[in-house]
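anyone else get weird line breaks when pasting these?? whatever heres mine. first is seq + tokens for prot A
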Amino acid sequence: MLKDRIIACLTAADRALPAREIANIVYAGDPDGGPLSATETIWSTIRDMRSDGVEIVNWPGKFGGYILGTREDLLYPVSIGSVVAECFELAARRELH
């Protein structure tokens, strides 16, 4: 079932995963590579899962994507690392100008 594969994918991830990457992972074993609208299928399935009470949060930004958890869970170490990396990148770009 797609919902189970999405949960397994997000559970195994060490960072937030964009919908396109989730689609690539969950449909990797499909001989056809999944539906033509695989990313949209992931989006709608995650929306349905949220409606069913599954705690999936969309982390915004360049290093963004989906994670399991609540808004309060967003500040766990993996996410903090992504935020720090993004801040350093933005600071470096400002120094170049």
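and prot B, same format (seq, then tokens)
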Amino acid sequence: MAPSIQWNCLKLRLIEVTLLVETLLPIGFCLQESNFKNRSDNVTLRNYSVYTTYVNEDERVAILVRYNILHSCANLNTDLQAVVKRISLNKAITLCSVYYGSELG
């Protein structure tokens, strides 16, 4: 079991994400530059809760957290595109998936 995975995937290839998750069984998974056709596309992955925010019309940053891991929202005061979750294991761990693309800088 991997504690967490971070991946700047440029384009989301759900089959690759699924293979990584099923092989490594991470507690959390941070994605950046995951491209979707439109906002109505809904990504689901068995046994994971998916939290996303939009970078632009087609790109999202996301955090996937295993369903049986206690987790909650955490606040982050930033203009960057970010998703933050607090995971409770034997201690609190904060996962943050941040996108800082060239259009922001």
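btw re prot B: The first strand starts at residue 4 and ends at 8. The helical segments are 14-24.
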